[in-house]
## 1
Amino acid sequence: MLKLYGFSKVNAGARGHTRDLRVLWALEEMQLPFELVGMDHPAHDLSTEAYRRCSPFEQIPSIDDDGLLLSESAAILVYLAKKTGRLMPDDRAGEAQVVRWCFAALNSVEPPLLSLMVLDWTADGSCGKHRQFLVGWVNRVLTNLEAWFADRDFVATDGFTIADILMANVLSSGIKDEGLIAPYPAVVSYRDRCLARPAWKRTIDAYCAQVEAG
Ligand SMILES: N[C@@H](CCC(=O)N[C@@H](CS)C(=O)NCC(=O)O)C(=O)O
């Protein structure tokens, strides 16, 4: 049986936004049975030699699929899509678009959002110029996405794919201030369309029931 290493306990600020949710959502969409191995972050469950074999950077999520060990949320989603034949087209051109947008979500969209979030966690009020630069970077990316979503419902293909799980997760967990995304109505309605899926609702409800803040 596929094992997913996810959080059982994580700090209150991160709870509800952790990257195991990407895999949990994909598994729910795919209706794939799995065993959840709950990891307690404050108790240092991730910092063991055994866990480092699954996840070299001591992070969640990772999977063990009958001995195949894999970390990195996007790599796990691509693996699961290929294994099940779900949430990714099986033709080479369709697959290329999905992989492209998985990379775009984590490599082009997440970095400015994450950088701004980290600055806002840690800033002491003396980083005005730095923050202005990051807000500009965020707006550039969201402007480009707004144009991309002008005439499409999903990011990579006509249907919902694993790229939408990553993009919608980045656009929700990566944005604490809704004012940042509000000027981009096509991006907002894309994100909300993805988050309205019944599989996401089941995923976040189960997560909230299982994962402790600590
Ligand atoms: N690139 C990784 C990032 C994973 C990641 O940042 N995981 C966080 C939780 S959302 C984590 O495990 N943090 C614990 C730590 O670094 O100590 C992925 O996409 O899976």
Note: The chain has a mean pLDDT of 97.
## 2
Amino acid sequence: MHKNIWHPFTIIKDSPEPLKVKRGMGAYLELEDGRVVMDCISSWWVNMHGHSHPGIAKAIYEQAKTLEHVIFAGFTHEPAEQLAEMITGKLPKNLNRLFYSDNGSTAVEVAMKMAYQHWKNLGEDRKTFICFDGAYHGDTLGAMSVGERSLFTEVFKELMFDVEVIPFPETWIDDSKRASKEDAVIEQLEDLLDKTPGKYAGIIMEPLIQGAGGMRMCSEEFLQKIHWVNRQFDVLLIFDEVMTGFGRTGDYFACLKAQVEPDIICLSKGISGGFMPLAATVCSDDIYNSFNSSEAIKTFWHGHSYTGNPLGCAAGVASWKLLEENESVFKNMEQIHLNNFERIKAHPRIFRLRVKGTISAFDIVDGGEVGWEEGYLNPISKELRKRALDLGYLLRPLGNVLYLMPPYCVSEEELNGIYDAILELV
Ligand SMILES: Cc1ncc(COP(=O)(O)O)c(C=O)c1O
């Protein structure tokens, strides 16, 4: 460990030395020791078109020569406007106002503050958020509050605010209980909203796939039911698409795939193709209009030094163009995953196979190991990571959940090769 660096999500004592990366090339990373590994998880899910993509690198360079940064209050610039038009042009029609920040957690904080203040501006006091078990929305205090209370949040529990938690009806291929699980959640939600109308500011969820919680997937129909209930009870629906945005679920956004119009959507990760820290929170005209006042108390007093950073926005514009060029890739990747599922589904340790667009996952079940436990701390994660690296693949299982989220530049042969490796590993 470098004497001056403190790494994230890393138990300091006894952790292996971090691997030093010399360069990135498409789907591959070259390590300092000469090894080359395929990045099967797009480096924490941000890298959409491959590492060091020359088109995005050039866009950042050109922008850096022109305007590297400018205060975003009272000033604006072309890349910020262009990117906002591109994103809102594709989102459902009601989502028109884009607020920039710089990471997924802040995109979520902004969404919650907007929702809370929206009701205040309308003269209503709605404090409570409804969220899902297993959720992960980031590591700032607000984002932690609406996420799963776990080992990661335990130390901070007294600093977090209260929320209402409902179950996430996770499902998988050939799950015969999907509809009944969904109905039970919808009933519970209706009950909550019916008992105390006017208490809830909004529902926040990761649509279609809960990422860090274990790549838990739900159906498009479930999102439609949630949307319908929301409309009945006039509660805001917040989609955290920090992971699911920009093609990941097989459409540009999960809300499009499910044909649902949330009131607020949070975006980051893939927004800049993995090149620059950038995030956006997009809200409906209704929400924006409740702030559209000359009264200072109704103003959204929120911002970050790097809000709307021109380099990030220029990377975003270049990445969006590549996304459009590669539409068929992210729309067709699900079928390649499914073809490979045919090869691995009979394996005795592979369970609960699931896929949405470019993301596939399954649980690894007990192979008789002592101390086996489901969840993030399952030691199989560490073991698989190491063995996968020996085979030339960067995989980072979430406990006993193995998942793939490759950049869109991987070929069908390369993706099939990852599944060959998986069969060797499990
Ligand atoms: C759905 C979701 N929301 C929010 C976040 C937080 O994003 P960041 O790590 O950029 O703060 C993540 C990160 O994994 C995420 O998956």
Note: The chain has two domains: 21-52+327-425, 58-324.
## 3
Amino acid sequence: MPDDLVLGDALLDGERVDVGIAAGCIARISPAGSLEGPTRIALDGALVIPGLVDGHIHLDKTYLGLPWRPHVPDGSVAGRIEAEKAERRRITEPMALRARRLVEHVTARGTTALRSHVDVDSEVGLKGLEALLRLREEVAHLLSIQLVAFPQSGVLSHPGAPGLMEDAIRAGCEVVGGLDPACIDEDIEGQLAVIFGIAERHGALVDIHLHDPGELGAYELRRIAARTKAAGMAGRVAVSHAFALGEVSDATLGRTAAVLAQAGVAIMTNGPGPEAIPPVKRLVAEGVTVFVGSDNIRDAWSPYGNGDMLERARLVGYRAALLTNEELRLALSLVTEAPARVMGLPAPRIAPGAPADLVVLRAAHVPEAVAGAPAREMVIKAGRVVARNGVLA
Ligand SMILES: [Zn+2]
């Protein structure tokens, strides 16, 4: 049976091949020049890498496309939450339009799957979630979306939040979110009991934002690991940011990393500028899954971010001193294999049987692609070209 699409003379990391694609998956990999067909696209030795996976984004928060909104400074997480709510009330353009704009923006840059947190609180209720559930259907041909019910205003400290989060999971969210059990709710065990309770009742995943610092944050990480173990949820729990891991003593780091690895709790970083970040190499060496996401893109939390996951891999690689070829390949895995594993997606491989989610760019090999983050020539989702040269096809 002929392939639906042939990528001719494609450079995989080290060899030039033809890639045959059929029924949305990679059907065969043959020596360069050996596959023909009416749908052959000549890549002339361009590098093909797996589709990029954004493990942490906030589609509902972005202002992308609106006139520039100056950042309002406020040092505390609580102050920023209130500033964001005030801004949210002033914006008239429907959130779904901005979210769709961001989806198209990241698709053109090679993201083929993402995990988006969506605010769930007494003010927006489930309206944001419902809009993103509709959007997910509309853009399924561009990328895969997983949704996290995110209690941005707190869990126990915000009236009605636990019920809303459970309703969000019933409505189609795959992941239960959380936020700083100590500094937002001042009740570590209470918040974790709610989160893990919902997750266990519904077979959902867990992804907790944790900005709580130092020894306190490390203690919370160990408590999350203990809950994960007790619930039999290894591989189904993630903690986002976990700045604490970059702040504590070596002894505390070692003890906490061992517990996280053993419990199967993954750590997400976006490599934020002013914060201590989890030590990527050390955590990976200890057996902890580390993955990367954009987090905020042009919103009340940050004017930065562009949703380019190859550039994000470069940024995290820069901050985490990933320098050798092997380490640069690790950097790419932080935005491909690792987030896919955390999200329960098929492994992004360029091999027969794998989904044909692919990105084409000009580089000699993966290390150079990560170091330079060159423009994306083509993005392929489920065997279909969805973007060329930064523009949707
Ligand atoms: Zn976030």
Note: The chain has a mean pLDDT of 96.
## 4
Amino acid sequence: MQMIIGGALGRMGRELTLAAEAAGVGIACGVDVAYTGQPVGYPVVTGFEQVKETADVIVDFSRPEALPELLKLAVDNKIPVVLCATGYTDEEIAMIGEAAKHIPVLRSANMSLGVNVLCELVRMAARTLEGFDIEIVEKHHRMKVDSPSGTALMLYDAAQKEKGPETEPLYGRYGRTQKRTDGEIGIHAVRGGTVTGEHEVGFYGNGEQVVLTHRAENRALFAQGALKAARWLADKPAGLYSMRDVVLAMLG
Ligand SMILES: NC(=O)c1ccc[n+]([C@@H]2O[C@H](COP(=O)([O-])OP(=O)(O)OC[C@H]3O[C@@H](n4cnc5c(N)ncnc54)[C@H](O)[C@@H]3O)[C@@H](O)[C@H]2O)c1
């Protein structure tokens, strides 16, 4: 498999380069606005419109601003795309949906296989543990600016899909003067030190608890997940996919 990497010189681009080399996946070309000519072991250009090489898949860890040129390259050359960047606007998400009519596109704000399996476990628990209260706690390093994390919201969505429309998120409980309601799912953010990322979904019942936890230990896991997604996507028909499709395909 030959791959084009978007954001090749960034933290995740470099992780993906290492993961690809270890897995024997070829890198046809890298794209990064910050490229200044230093050798990186494969050709790098500063914009998707400059890519001359062809490939089996494009994996992007750059920024939403790169999207129009990235999708043009992919659609014009019929190259499947794995979109890993976060922060797309509604307009950009519509653009992605349009491209997916012509080529296979997989987009996920969390490429970790473990987190996506956790989402499935949360669905199963929410479906079967009737009457249990659900609480989500996420922990991240002190530099993280947004809260709650996008992954905490993804886990909330997984539970909410099973519990139904009366469910609502409750962010912290500061100032509350009433008992917990059945429909609420508490979401809590802890910030400190160098924690890479931890997500815990607790199901609290009458005399028993089930607590599902995912701990990210480094960023390499996102690169591993992106490679898995790229391999899975390469022979799929046009359409919009997510990491959930990869997990469900593994379940058979
Ligand atoms: N889906 C996931 O699991 C996952 C995991 C980690 C990070 N991310 C996302 O991936 C993106 C990159 O994260 P990072 O930590 O590697 O960031 P980073 O800032 O270290 O790297 C981004 C790279 O993209 C380059 N870039 C920026 N704009 C570009 C453009 N228009 N065209 C080409 N290159 C461009 C930058 O020069 C930089 O080298 C972010 O959106 C981040 O939120 C997603």
Note: Residues 6-7, 9-13, 31-34, 61-63, 65-66, 84-87, 108-111, 222 surround nicotinamide-adenine-dinucleotide (CB under 6 Å).
